[in-house]
Amino acid sequence: MDLGKRFSRARALFPHTRKVVYLNSASYGPFSTLVKKAIDDNVSLRLRADRDDSHDAFAAADELRSVYARMIGARKREVGIGLNTSFGLNIAAFGLPLKRGDEILMSDFEFPAVPYTWRAAAEARGLKLKFIRSKQKHVALDDVQKALTKRSRVLCVSWVQFFNGFKNDLAALSELCHSNRVWLVVDGIQGMGVEPINVRKLGVDVFASGCQKWMLSPQGGGFFYLSDAVRDKLAYSSMSWLGVDWKMNFTDMFRFDLPYFDSARRFELGYYAVLNLHGMKASAGLIENLGIRNIRKHNHTLIDRLADYIRGKPLYTITSSMDKAHRSSIFTFTCPGYKKLHRELLKRRIILVEREGSIRVSVHLFNNERDIDRLIAILDRFAKTGSRTAGA
Ligand SMILES: Cc1ncc(COP(=O)(O)O)c(C=O)c1O
Known about the structure:
Elements: H1 3-12, E1 21-22, H2 33-48, H3 54-72, E2 79-82, H4 85-95, E3 103-107, H5 113-125, E4 128-132, H6 141-147, E5 152-158, H7 170-179, E6 183-187, H8 199-202, E7 206-210, E8 222-226, H9 228-231, H10 274-290, H11 292-311, E9 317-318, E10 330-334, H12 338-347, E11 350-351, E12 353-355, E13 358-362, H13 369-384
Parallel strand pairs: 1-11, 3-4, 3-5, 5-6, 6-7
Antiparallel strand pairs: 2-8, 7-8, 9-10, 10-13, 12-13
Helix pairs in contact: 2-10, 3-10, 4-5, 11-13
């Protein structure tokens, strides 16, 4: 089947597409009927309660570790299942081998999941947070270089910036980090599912992502990658009975000396959010089947259609990068009266958000040209009439 048809078929799995134009996957992804069915099936099973299904979750988690590992170019043993992005960031912040006075670098426009996690770790461990001032609204290599000192030990950075979609050059940042004995911790959520990545090749030490956005999974499900090199150096900030290998033998429970898993799994915490696991499996399957490279191409083509229109209208200014190396599935633009425009768009069932002075358009696999044209039609009307009476 040709790619266009496969994307049309995928779109048909998302009921919302019949009612609204959803351009907000950078906030939360919508559900497909595949996710609904996977969760419904599990709810039905629990309602019947006619068999012990407790082991199903172990199988689902195991499958997910494999899928996520494939998607990010990791080994399965380097991937663990968590709740969200913060889960993995916390493993790094409280576990990395750091000493009092060590510096943690991050930009001064990170999503709060990054600074708040590290702030608490800094308070508890006597670390120093250092915010990199950048005028360019992304993590510029020069600025990182200037901020590095002998005490710098961690750079924590978003793969893709949430507010303008700028995709950071992880290869260059990784090189810089490793030549200065600095760990690279990546908040991956805004690229996960729409940008290909190979964390091992890039030399990322820790990668954390929730799956509630571009991965189109239920909220409260995510995963983390801990490289083979970093895993055994991490202290445990938390531990659970499922951090050790029971070899699926849960009838002899008074064994308190079992070895920890020799994998990222030992950082998982207790039993699973089972309904989520089933939803996560369904959505990851859809994304893997379509292929992340294909999804990126699909999204960029739609964004190009919108960008072409925007470029032709003096009222509007593109605020995201269109540079091949730095663009993503987030496109942002602004205009005088953008808040009024945002309200207008919502009224017309175009679901998106404004962020940091721009309208943020998140394009995903279920969007098509008609969606973009509906958005353009409203922008066109606003350019002709609405903007005249607009105060931002
Ligand atoms: C860059 C980034 N990191 C993290 C999050 C969310 O963190 P968590 O998955 O821990 O809720 C968001 C958005 O909600 C985000 O845009």
